[in-house]
Amino acid sequence: MLLSGCAQLQDNAVLKRSAQWLDLGNRGGSERDEAYDAEVQQLFAQPYIDPLTRYLEHHRSDETRAAHLQQVLEERNLRCEQIAERYATKPLTEQTLEQYRAGYDYSCPQQVAAFGQRLQQASREDKVVQTTTAVKPADEIDLSRPLAQQLNDCYLLTTIGNFSDARTACAAPAEKGDPRARYNMALVARSLEEYEDALNWAHLAAPHSVEARYLLGQLYEAGQGVAADDNNALSWYLDAAEQGYAPAQYLVGLFLAEGRGAKQNPRAAVEWYERAAAQGLAQAQVALGEMLLRGEGVEANPAQGHMWMLRAARQGLAEAQLLLGELAEKAGGGPVSRAEAAVWYELAGQNGLEAGSIRARNLRIELAPETLQEARLKVRRVLEGAR
Fold it and tell me: Does the model's pTM come out above 0.70?
């Protein structure tokens, strides 16, 4: 199949039976992965390379796509190598190089640079070469990749967890002062438990990177590369939170709710939880829901509290699903409420909370199959947004 650098470009059932149970687990995970699988399959079904590169660039910061990004990266690299093999049989001329650049410099800059290096060498030897030999291995060639390509590789390799190659790709742009590359160097160092390096890179990135400020908060909180210090941790989290970074807003709320790094302030905690919850952060939604249910830092509002819990549960957060199970079990509605609780508990168990699986089993033995089936249908409607 002829590859080109130019662009050309079923919902699954929510419920599955497992014995007498309807498997509702990980709505936010399994169905999402199926959707990503379909995207990748569609990408691979077309012959062009640039759509793969655009996918990598568009989703390079999406950690939920790490496995799919790795697949697309491998396929993109394979197609670039196939193109390199084809161009290895073409005349080694400036005209061929320009053709190569025009078609593939966006997606395959390393291979294009390798061809250009061979052409320069041939010119120095004052001869024109037509060759059918393979392109030299990358480690024998100074590819002189453009900074933009190094940055793209840096971001992508960090996202998919290829930390060894990410460090190599990020080093040059980080030294040149790119804030995102410096932040990625900090992430890589922390992942490799090189905490002092992580702290240094994060400090360098912090003036221009809200994520780096958040990372500094994590390092101070955990005592990694520096003595544990809740005051400093909260200061960095607050700095990032004020810039609108939802994970930092949630942790500022948590610190204030628990009185860590500052005097306990439930009302202020609620305000920070609200900011993060409004941005869709599930952990903040469940924390806000709990505060509203208890009337802590805010007037009790069970309806609003339940609503925020449900939003978090729809994202697959096991803690929210467990709490919804507890609310249903305490509702006093007899077998119907207990069956609904059992379904929520099972969801929590499937999303990683063993306590949910245990509670579900304990309730299941006392419930009739038809009552469980009604509860499954009700929970499905709730997850899909029905009242």
Answer: no
Residue 5 and residue 134: Cα distance in Å, rounded? Answer: 21
Locus of tokens 């394979």: 78
Report domain extents, the chain: 20-99+111-124, 147-206, 229-315, 316-387
Evaluate whether 275 touches 246 at the Cβ level (below 8 Å): yes
Three state DSSP letters for the chain: CCCCCCCCCCCCCCCEEECCEEECCCCCCHHHHHHHHHHHHHHHHCCCCHHHHHHHHHCCCCHHHHHHHHHHHHHHHHHHHHHHHHHCCCEECHHHHHHHHHHHCCCCHHHHHHHHHHHHHHHHCCCCEECCCCCCCHHHCCCCCCHHHHHHHHHHHHHCCCHHHHHHHHHHHHHCCCHHHHHHHHHHHHHCCCHHHHHHHHHHHHHHCHHHHHHHHHHHHHCCCCCCCHHHHHHHHHHHHHCCCHHHHHHHHHHHHHCCCCCCCHHHHHHHHHHHHHCCCHHHHHHHHHHHHHCCCCCCCHHHHHHHHHHHHHCCCHHHHHHHHHHHHHCCCCHHHHHHHHHHHHHHHHCCCHHHHHHHHHHHCCCCHHHHHHHHHHHHHHHCCCC
Q: Give the tens place of pLDDT for each residue, 107-130.
A: 888 788 888 887 887 776 544 333
The CATH class given to the 229-315 domain equals mainly alpha
Over residues 67-118, the pLDDT tens digits come to 888 898 889 989 998 998 888 888 878 888 888 888 888 888 878 888 888 7
